[in-house]
Amino acid sequence: MANGQILAGFLAPHPPHLVYGENPPQNEPRSRGGWEQLRWAYERARRSLEELKPDVLLVHSPHWTTQQGHHFLGVRKLNGKSVDPIFPNLFRYEFALDVDVELAEACCAEAAAQGLTTKMMRNPNFRVDYGTITTLHMIRPQWDIPVVGLSANNSPYYLTTEEGLEEMDLLGKATARAIARTGRRAVLLASNTLCHYHFSEEPAIPEDMSQEHPQNYEGYLWDMRMIDLLRRGRTSEAFKLLPQFIQEAFAEVKSGAFTWMFAAMGYPELPGELHGYGTVIGTGNAVMEWNLVKAGFARAA
Ligand SMILES: [Fe+2]
Question: How many CB atoms lie under 10 A from the CB of residue 144?
Answer without folding.
Answer: 7
